[in-house]
Design goal:
The protein is of the alpha+beta class. The chain is built from 12 helices and 4 strands. Helix 2 runs antiparallel to helix 3, helix 2 packs parallel to helix 4 and helix 8 crosses helix 10. The two termini are 42 Å apart. The structure holds flavin mononucleotide.
């Protein structure tokens, strides 16, 4: 019976996702709001950064990207003012200009654009790291850190303070994302009534939800996406961010357990209305965290044999 109903419901459920993707992303509409336009600028300045991070960048590369940035940055600054997005973009362009000049390529349009408002020399562009700086940890520390992450379901009930939550999310922001567009967002509660309000929409926290010290809802802002090909990108970027948050919490010696958001459209709709999560956001997963009890019993969750996971091409 349920399978039959699901056959009928599957298309409307996909339509629910598709509609929100179409109205949020700029795949089928112009980049007519701050987030959508910021996504285009970020994507393009990052193409410049990426190009300069190659082993042998070609002088004058990315002319089409530069043309677009010279339209989008002024458009953005006129509508929303200069901010971190445009500053980083200008800094990346300044490094690009210096690189090209050093290689005998001059772009007068770019020169005129940058002379209007000089870059701040803050973030944006490239940095050089030694191998030591790239891997600043001992082998055994790193291996034991990665191997020791487990899902924890036994907590003291102590609240995770706001500063610790902020630190965890800041660390989680090291997660990679498509063209550095950083679509992931985090909605968090650490007050009991707020946590309960979120947890009642989630079916996998029974027996331990009431002892959590914070509840995270990880979403992805679909305004960061620009093409049809990115229709599932929210779940990739959001999932990567969620994992990064789990590892960050682990690094702060907090226990964490992902809490699935495997829900049909009508449930998703109800939850986002109750929690005040905008339609532009795809809810990816919840995550519960807290201070583990002294001796924690965890599910072993044995892993598959390597040869059923790893396939050599
Ligand atoms: C997206 C996702 C959703 C999950 N949802 C739940 C959940 O609702 N409740 C729960 O107790 N565990 C949940 N888990 C935890 C898994 O059961 C756990 O990660 C898996 O068994 C591996 O164990 P480990 O995390 O201890 O290595 C979820 C994990 C993921 C990745």
């Amino acid at each position: 019976m349920r399978r039959l109903a699901n056959r009928v419901l599957i298309v409307p459920n996909y339509v629910y996702d598709a509609r929100r993707f179409m109205s949020s992303s700029s795949a089928a509409r112009s980049a007519d709001d701050r987030e959508r336009l910021a996504a285009h600028i970020t994507m393009d300045y990052h193409r410049i950064e990426k190009g300069m991070a190659l082993p042998a960048p070609r002088a004058g590369f990315g002319q089409d990207v530069i043309e677009r940035l010279l339209v989008h940055i002024p458009q953005y600054e006129a509508a929303y003012g200069a901010d971190a997005t445009t500053e980083v973009a200008r800094n990346a362009l300044t490094e690009y200009q210096a690189f090209n000049r050093a290689n005998g390529v001059v772009n007068t349009k770019l020169d005129a654009f940058l002379s209007g408002r000089p870059a701040t020399n803050g973030e944006g562009g490239t940095v050089e790291l030694t191998r030591e700086q790239l891997f600043p940890f001992s082998d055994d520390q790193a291996l034991s850190f990665v191997r020791s992450r487990r899902s924890v379901r036994q907590f003291t009930g102590e609240t995770i303070p706001n500063e610790v939550i902020e630190e965890a999310v800041r660390l989680a922001q090291r997660a990679p994302s498509v063209c550095n567009r950083q679509a992931a967002r985090v909605y968090v509660a650490n007050q009991r009534d707020r946590m309960d309000q979120a947890l009642k929409f989630q079916n996998g926290n029974r027996g331990f939800g009431d002892r959590l010290g914070a509840v995270f809802v990880i979403t992805a802002d679909m305004r960061a996406f620009t093409t049809l090909g990115e229709r599932n990108q929210a779940w990739v970027d959001g999932g990567i961010f969620a994992m990064s948050l789990a590892m960050s919490l682990h690094s702060l010696k907090l226990g964490a357990c992902m809490l699935n958001w495997s829900v049909p459209a009508r449930h998703d709709k109800r939850a986002r209305a109750a929690l005040g999560i905008d339609d532009n956001q795809a809810i990816i997963t919840m995550l519960g965290a807290g201070y583990p009890v002294e001796d924690v019993r965890i599910a072993e969750s044995p892993r598959r044999q390597l040869d059923s996971v790893l396939h050599w091409l």
